[in-house]
């Protein structure tokens, strides 16, 4: 069977995939500083004989195979979060350490492993002459960690590239994921009147005003709706700021940052309406400030996005989910687990904003993302590469 041939070929490339992953883990690639790793990925794509390799104005790298009618895009963001406290790391986060069949390092799982597997899926397709009536784009995207979906807003709006299907290769522990909660970030501001701390009754304390709102937000979290698949919506006050003339004065301004996770059926409008009700019940005047991310890519291109990241869910009976399930069964002779991410991905743009059919399948377990244990088993690289190589065959057969 073709699926068996693909899996055998993927195992042949285990060493090359592992080497490539270790190389790109060893290249620090913080958001907005991804040039070196993008160039390294582009070189590997050329080495394994992609038909075309290009880098767009934001710095995303595209590797193309084929010229068929159905357009399939596979995405891995290549930027990483910081390392935090280095004493918590067992290995150098930028060594790309291989130990007992596991690659460790910042970005090893989140999510350079997906990038390595995708590139070698392209090599498998080329070596086995599996090109057909589809075009595969392997995309290494940038700036996801600071604003998920920003890169795909650029790809669709500025590059004018809109595929028929998208596979997000964020960690899924080799499960198939079909959605996740969205989120909105806002700030709330209260204003007061400063006075000397020795005479607080002469002022209006902006922090005291905010305290009533914060308690209301805590209570709101308990009554937010839940969805059988995505789970419960949540709300958290994640940061607090204030302004005061001195340490010995009544503060005249207080601002909190609010992270609101949105389950199915919840929107920016519904979330803001709930916050307005909390403020009304608190009995104080306050302002809700919607947030915008504005960033500069390593290419120098400035790009922005509102901090509203839409919830998305693919139906279990959708073509893309059925294709993913069929791919898994053919390769691994088992029933896949179909689930969801706990965190957010570029799917907020591909599926949430643009309505492009999207699924997730990736090496590594998401529990290690953003932690000092960031890692990927080598076996996951092999299986993910096989999945990415076979998936287009199933998609075009079903169309």
What does this structure look like?
There is one protein chain. This protein has helices spanning 2-12, 14-25, 35-47, 108-127, 150-157, 206-222, 268-282, 319-332, 347-353, 378-398, and strands spanning 52-55, 61-65, 70-77, 97-99, 102-104, 134-141, 165-168, 176-177, 179-180, 182-191, 226-227, 231-232, 234-243, 253-262, 287-290, 292-296, 302-306, 308-309, 312-313, 338-339, 358-361, 375-377. The mean pLDDT is 97. Strand 11 and strand 12 (231-232) form a beta hairpin. The two termini are 21 Å apart. It has 2 domains: 2-180 and 311-398, 3-Layer(aba) Sandwich (Aminopeptidase); 183-295, 2-Layer Sandwich (Alpha-Beta Plaits). It is α+β, with helices and mostly antiparallel strands and 399 residues long. The chain is 35% helix and 25% strand. 48% of the residues are buried. It has 10 helices and 22 strands. Helix 2 (14-25) runs antiparallel to helix 4. The strands form 6 sheets. Strands 1-2-6-3-7-21-8-20 form an 8-stranded mixed β-sheet, with helices on both faces. Strands 10, 13, 14, 15 and 18 form a 5-stranded antiparallel β-sheet that branches. The protein has a 3-stranded antiparallel β-sheet with strand order 4-5-22.
């Amino acid at each position: 069977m073709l699926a068996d041939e693909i899996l055998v070929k993927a195992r042949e490339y285990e060493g090359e995939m592992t080497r490539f992953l270790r190389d790109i883990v060893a290249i620090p690639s913080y958001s907005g500083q991804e040039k070196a790793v993008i160039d390294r990925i582009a070189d590997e794509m050329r080495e394994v004989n992609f038909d075309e390799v290009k880098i767009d104005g934001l710095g995303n790298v595209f590797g193309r195979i084929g010229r068929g009618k159905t357009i399939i895009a596979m995405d891995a963001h290549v930027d990483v979060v910081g390392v935090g406290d280095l004493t918590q790391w067992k290995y150098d986060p930028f060594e790309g350490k291989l130990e007992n069949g596991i690659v460790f390092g910042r970005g090893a799982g989140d999510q350079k492993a997906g990038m390595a597997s995708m590139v070698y899926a392209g090599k498998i397709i080329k070596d086995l002459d599996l090109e057909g009536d589809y075009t595969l784009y392997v995309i290494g995207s940038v700036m996801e960690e600071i604003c998920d979906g920003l890169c795909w807003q650029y790809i669709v709006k500025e590059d004018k590239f809109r595929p028929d299907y998208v596979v997000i290769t964020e960690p899924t522990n080799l499960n198939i994921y079909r959605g996740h909660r969205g989120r909105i970030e806002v700030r709330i501001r209260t204003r007061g009147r400063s006075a000397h701390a020795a005479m607080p009754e002469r002022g209006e304390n902006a922090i005291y005003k905010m305290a009533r709102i914060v308690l209301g937000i805590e209570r709101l979290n308990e009554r937010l709706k839940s969805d059988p698949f995505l789970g419960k919506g949540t709300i958290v006050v994640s940061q607090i700021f204030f302004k005061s003339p001195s340490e010995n004065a009544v503060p005249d301004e207080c601002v909190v940052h609010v992270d609101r996770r949105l389950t199915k059926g919840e929107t920016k409008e519904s979330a803001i309406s709930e916050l307005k009700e909390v403020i009304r019940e608190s009995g104080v005047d306050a302002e809700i400030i919607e947030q915008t991310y504005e960033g500069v890519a390593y290419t120098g291109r400035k790009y922005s996005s509102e901090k509203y990241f839409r919830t998305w869910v693919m139906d279990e009976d959708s073509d893309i989910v059925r294709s993913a399930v069929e791919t898994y069964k053919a390769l691994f002779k088992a029933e896949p687990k179909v689930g969801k991410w706990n965190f957010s991905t570029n799917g907020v743009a591909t599926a949430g904003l643009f309505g492009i059919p999207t699924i997730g399948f990736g090496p590594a377990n998401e529990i290690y993302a953003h932690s000092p244990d960031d890692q990927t088993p080598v076996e996951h690289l092999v299986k993910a590469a096989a999945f990415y190589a076979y998936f287009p065959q199933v998609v075009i057969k079903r169309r």
